[in-house]
Design goal:
Oligomer: homodimer
Largest sheet of chain A: 7 strands, mixed
Strand content of chain A: 15-25%
Number of strands of chain A: 15
Number of helices of chain A: 18
Structural class of chain A: alpha/beta
């Protein structure tokens, strides 16, 4: 029997609007606080870093926000992305479950990140911004924003965590191929970078340091440069909802509706972009899809962190937001191969987990790579380390179905390919990866540094 | 105005047959000769290395050969592949030309190679083969065959040129992730490998040595292992024609027919797979599409080689075929970043060039990387070094149209993404790449080693 593997949307079906979950959030948002005064920030404070159009999206409660035509024209270079029925994986697992996955790895940089990078570049260009700054860890976000800035004729400075800059040069090269500048952070280009180097000239850097450098450059540029963030914030998750909106259309083509929707979470943009349109259906149409956020056991903000006000960065320069956090002083273990290493979490995702609308699960890395190889050897695609967390949970649920005999519909997001991450697979195959549980006393200690606020 | 960027075929439009150009070749094929006797080989001789079904495809003159359903089921994991109108590139070039490209980089290994890897694995499995051997240079072919063998439950030994094994480990890791074994060639696993190591323990290896090792393992396995080749042979090009057949359908969707079809050539499988269906139209329907094979100036078999009988490998173990060759002793310069380094060329492609049905052009590597960055910065996708040769020719032709004002339809094949090849871009951006012209006297010298045959 000939089976259908892919559900492909015509370009004309590319969504015309992003979905803003603020319109349907069952809980009121917590205020965003100034890092020094600890009072709610005004749009003016944020406007040093972001164009007003993005700040307005951050606080908008409109349900749908139109995707500007120039953004859609760029999206068309790879969107709509394909949606697959995982027949071969189902057979290998011998499960009655129907497993589907959305594949964002077909974007030119191999991940979902351009969905918001292109939008942010567009709105900045529209606002007259000539240059952006950003940070990047292994380079996934930096390469997406480099491509986007190039499309809109803007300069970009990327502060890349030094240890990644040196050890994972491929994405650095991608960033440079699109014409952006990359600096190994900490640099001597910023006050904060110089202060770090003064204390430790051999500092390997961290995402926290890189954020602070990128923010400082934008904040002290006299308005010529703005700052761009690749996750966590509401407008970032908003732009990613183009993923979930496409999946809703593709599930219609397949004639199914999911019992379970699964996505991995680091800062929350992949999860929000994939799951929020399904939450809308849960909230407004009485659907009862189980929504699962899969995070690494080595960086377990949702499952072991506290839902509290905390700084967005290590240097306490970013606003204070209410979120699941491991503490802004948290340093993720370097033994972990994946990229889901942020100490905090999107405030929207955090609130949804806190109030029971989303279930959070943590997964150990050895189990994720085992699942990743099962996936690669059946479906062909080698996943990036991040979505392997979603694959692990999806396989676990499919195996439960095998026991119960239930033909549940399980849908997950494969947010990127692993072609830049083969060293992690190599380490796994050589038995060099280990699992890591962050010690409870260290989390406890980090929690003692949370800011005291009146909200 | 909203423009259409992609022409996407539904899975149901996946071609059901490959196109065999032997049916329409305007010139008779030259015989394939035994490397020792120099007499025409029989199918029995080849059956040590290949299953009879593939040997029969090699010599078939049937116009269409049905794609077996199990092969189509695997193809569906990524096929049909997308076909793009390069609106953004056209605008950047300010050309009236209509530029289209087929994109094979969406396959799980990022290139067109699985089209034949899957077919070869299937036919071998069907014939009772338990294991395959092959060689690979930078790993593109090895990773494709590793994926394919895994799908059909067969073992695979890959002999990977040692210098690539050490310097370009990512594709080696991809091969291992699919469960195949990879050896840095020359190895001590074969007589030929041991003889090379005895002469030079630090030999960096070469594709010629790796071919000889893979062939030796299969030939001496007592029938338990067969050998698989990723280019050059007729059946390999046959399997790749699924690309061109899809493009014909996609051009219909776009309502255009090409004035020019361009593909890069190393051994010829990418070129044949893309261009042969258009040659059918030229031969049988009176179309007059110009068909251009783009090859590197540093390995110019079509443009500077001789159309003559030569060995397929350096060790003179492979059959002698009539082709454009730089001589089986030719060693391609290591300065060239691309993978198009074979001394010979597909006999079918060679005959078509020799008799004027295909135009061959050579391109310098600095010009290809310049074109690649123009492409990446407009269309988003970073191309593998091989298809940059086709892009260079396509851009040159589009710029000619700008001068003449002609709105020619130019179609090329983007046979893979460059995510595994970023080091080449890095070298280009740092000014470390140079152009290389193979000295005429060295080609002359290599020609003096061609075998003397009676045909």
């Amino acid at each position: 029997m000939s089976e259908q593997y892919k559900y492909i949307l015509d370009e004309s079906k590319l969504p015309k609007a992003w979905y803003n979950i603020n319109a349907d959030m069952p809980v009121a948002p917590a205020p965003v606080l100034h890092p020094q005064t600890k009072e709610p920030v005004t749009p003016d404070f944020l406007s040093v870093l972001f164009p007003m159009s993005l700040i307005m999206q951050e606080i908008s409660t409109e349900r749908y926000i139109e995707i500007p035509e120039p953004v859609r024209e760029v999206y068309k270079l790879w969107r709509p992305t394909p949606f697959f029925r995982a027949h071969r994986l189902e057979k290998a697992l011998d499960t009655p479950a129907h497993i589907y996955y959305k594949y964002e790895g077909v974007s030119p940089v191999g991940s979902h990140k351009p969905n918001t990078a292109v939008a942010q570049a567009f709105y900045n260009k529209e606002a007259g911004t000539h240059a952006l700054t950003t940070e990047t860890g292994a380079g996934q976000w930096g390469s997406a924003l480099a491509m986007a800035c190039n499309f809109f004729g803007m300069d970009l400075e990327v502060y890349m965590v030094k240890v990644s800059y040196n050890q994972k040069p491929y994405r650095r090269m991608v960033i440079e191929s699109y014409g952006a500048e990359v600096y190994a952070s900490p640099t001597d280009r910023t006050n904060y970078g110089r202060s770090v180097l003064a204390q430790d000239p051999d500092s390997p850097g961290s995402l926290g340091i890189a954020i602070s450098e990128a923010v400082e450059v934008a904040a002290t540029s006299g308005g010529t440069k703005k700052y761009s963030l690749g996750s966590v914030l509401n407008h970032v998750l908003l732009h990613q909802t183009v993923i979930g909106e496409e999946v809703l259309l593709q599930l219609e083509m397949a004639g199914e509706y999911p019992d379970m929707v699964i996505a991995c979470t680091g800062g929350g943009s992949n999860f929000g972009g994939f799951a929020f349109p399904f939450l809308r259906k849960n909230f407004t149409e009485g659907k009862q899809t189980k929504i699962i956020a899969a995070e690494p056991a080595a960086s377990p903000s949702l499952t072991r962190g506290k839902y509290a006000f905390d700084y967005g960065d290590t240097a306490q320069m970013a606003p204070i937001v209410k979120m699941h956090t491991l503490g802004h002083t948290f340093v993720p273990p370097t033994i972990h191969a994946g990229g889901l290493r942020y100490h905090g979490m999107s405030p929207q995702v955090s609130a949804l987990v806190e109030h029971g609308f989303v279930e959070a699960r943590s997964v150990n890395q050895l189990a994720t790579f085992e699942a990743a190889l099962t996936f690669a050897r059946t479906e062909g695609i080698i996943p990036a380390p991040e979505p392997t967390h979603a694959i692990r949970v999806a396989i676990d649920e499919a195996l439960k179905c095998k026991e119960t005999g239930e033909a549940k519909v399980i849908v997950f997001n494969l947010c990127g390919h692993g072609h830049f991450d083969m060293a992690a697979y190599d380490a796994y195959l050589k038995g060099q990866l280990v699992d890591y549980e962050y010690p409870a006393e260290e989390i406890e200690e980090a929690m003692s540094h949370l800011p005291e606020v009146a909200f």
